[in-house]
Amino acid sequence: MESLETSNSPQEQLTTTLKQTVLELSQWKLGHGFKNTSLLLQALTHSSFFNERNCKNDEVRADNERLEFLGDAVIGLIIAQSMMEKFPKASEGQLSRWRSSLVSRKTLAEIALSLGMNEWVLLGRGERQTGGAVKVSILAGVFEAVVGALYLDAGLIKVNEFLREVYHPWLTALTELKENEARKLFDMKTHLQEKTQELYRAVPSYQLVGSWGPEHEKTFKVEIQIGGKSVASGEGKSKKEAEQKAAQTALEVLGF
User: Fold this and answer.
1) Which end of the chain is flanked by fewer CB atoms within 10 Å, N or C?
2) Is 144 a catalytic residue?
3) Rounded distance, CA 20 to CA 101, Å?
């Protein structure tokens, strides 16, 4: 393990703190000692920290947005495979709805929070002071970025083990549900309606705002309004799919 040296230089103190974060994360939480610790460091670096600290000459050469992009794809693949294995009789529609919930920003943020990633993510001073460490978008992003970094450093087998472990409570809960309960739990429209009725005493309305493409392969766009205000929109190959995706986005926007 790399030794850490103490220094009075603010820049070197920063570097030391970042290295300590990397080592703690890889040793105790991911169960993997990174060969390339700069990857993990980048995964933890939000754009607000990178821009505020002007890290270009430091060990951090970029923020975590590119790794977030990669991690999103890796998570989608492994969760899809896990669900295919666990639910051999589920239809394509059921699998799609359940996967949408399991890879939603809300679920990713909950997993990140359960792992303590709110304490690892490197934020700019302003972002941290305004509660950035517990924002759904930031937590979901850092989780995706860490998965992307783990994939690049250790490969698909290791990241598969990690994701199956952290997703175990969610997949187990889904496995133990009866079909009608599972359908309700992962029906975004039902979940959104329950939340808006509870908090706003209002029911979401869905408006078809556009469609395009040939008749056999149309794409539909639906907008959600709550209390007369536009909240989110979604696209899909059917009106129903577009409504579900719009509801999922609305849930994320509203922080449910």
Assistant:
1) N
2) yes
3) 34
